[in-house]
Amino acid sequence: MIVITAPTGQIGSRVMGILLNEAPERGEELRVIVRDPGKLPDAVRARVDVVTGSHGDAEVVDRAFAGADAVFWLVPPHPRAPSLDAAYSGFTRAAAKAFTAHGVGHVVGVSALGRGTPAAGRAGHVTASLAMDDLIAGTGVAYRALACPSFMDNLLRQVASIRDDGVFTDTAAADRTAPTAATGDIAAAAAGLLLDRSWTGTGEVPVLGPEDLSANDMARVMSEVLGRPIRYRRQSLEDLRAAFTGRGVGDAIVQGYVDMMRSKDDGIDGGVPRTPETASPTTFRQWCEEVLKPAVQA
């Protein structure tokens, strides 16, 4: 039995799609934890065991992890959390107890790059993600943290600006290169680990994408794929803070984003070498052609 959390999110839904195709051939049953089962397609609900509720709730995870061999773990956004610890480790503590109580053998989680770097202790959401990994690893379960850079798919939040104004924004220096990964590749890495549970102990699995790109590089690729000029506009950290605050995000979470983006501009995502094992396959150009362009043209 494999349990999938956040099955309606951009990564969890892809993990579920892969497992729905591959798990039955291996005799694996699937269970999902979801707040609103109505958000699952009818065809999916017919093929999985559904546990309704939040995977931060002790009673919910106690039911969901009974008989489970493996769990895909992803913490959902909590814009009004009182602290980053509450948003990550606090949300995960009930699950960590349930992993032990039910003898769950393997857990795969979505986390961040940065462990072992000088900025790891002051990188906001990155720091909180790494602390969550330590909490899970401390239960004794076999654990793999998918150590991810920024997602290519985050650009989908700016489709209107890209389409209407030919502009996308971020806080990084325009010429700073860094890895980015497609969420589809992150999901594929998770599904592979959940299906092939020959691994033991704890560790990280970096998902780096095939190349490092700068914002200027991304603007050039988007311009070529979309057939129109796209330019990059750098946003200050204070403007980022104001934007999140204006959307009602709590102070602790806003500060976490500011600290994380500062650490990314300082190079926190650049500490892991790209190898055949860490280089996920989807190029930014391919992602633009397959994901961004259809979204812009919709």
Automatic annotation (TrEMBL):
Domain of life: Bacteria
A Pfam family annotated for this UniProt entry: NAD_binding_10
InterPro entries registered for this protein in UniProt: Ergot_Alk_Oxidoreductase (IPR051604), NAD(P)-bd_dom (IPR016040), NAD(P)-bd_dom_sf (IPR036291)
Domain (NAD(P)-binding): residue spans on this chain: 8-170
Protein name (Swiss-Prot/TrEMBL): NAD(P)H-binding protein
Annotated source species: Streptomyces endocoffeicus
